[in-house]
Amino acid sequence: MCDASDYALGAVLGQRINNKSHVIHYASHTLNEAQLNYTVTEKEFLAVVFAFEKFRSYLLGSQVIIYTDHSALKYLLSKKDAKPRLLRWILLLQEFDCEIRDRK
Fold first, then answer.
1. The whole model's pTM is what?
2. Terminal CA-to-CA distance of the chain, rounded, Å?
3. Bridge-based pairing state of the strands 2-4 and 8-17
4. What are the beta bridge partners of residue 10?
5. Are 67 and 1 in contact (CB under 8 A)?
6. What pairing do the DSSP bridges indicate for beta strands 97-102 and 8-17?
7. How far, in Å, CA of 71 to CA of 37, rounded?
């Protein structure tokens, strides 16, 4: 699960066992001066990228489901004419077996 606010990012690595979620790791990060100027969508995507970089050793070779409250992230992963920064992030996520789902 990933989320972003105006000033920080957060992520939770969890595992489902018998339909019950178990937390493995929490991570958070405050945004630097440049990142504070990102759009809401870019901040949400940055939260996902931050989580994948932070939890990389846990996630490689596993099927990963990303829960987010920002549904535009699904669209961004298929966008071909995005900003170079977003394209770099998309390429980074392509090495993982991941699926984005809306958090309800």
1. 0.85
2. 12
3. antiparallel
4. 3, 28
5. yes
6. unpaired
7. 21
> What is the C-alpha to C-alpha distance for residues 74 and 99, in angstroms, rounded to an integer?
9
The second-level CATH assignment, the architecture, of 2-102 is 2-Layer Sandwich (3.30)
Render pLDDT for 11-49 as a digit per residue (tens, 0 to 9). Answer: 999 988 898 889 999 999 999 999 999 999 899 899 999
Task: Collect all residues with Cβ–Cβ distance below 8 Å to 95 and sequence separation of at least 6.
Answer: 60
Residue that is written with structure tokens 């309800």 in the block = 104
CA count, 13 A, side-chain hemisphere, 30 = 2
Phi, psi of 21 (to 5 degrees): -80, 135
Of 19, 30, 29, 26, nearest in space to 1 by CA: 26
Residues 6+ apart with CB under 8 A from 68: 1, 2, 3, 44, 47, 48, 100, 101, 102, 103
- Encoding tokens for residue 73? 């992230």
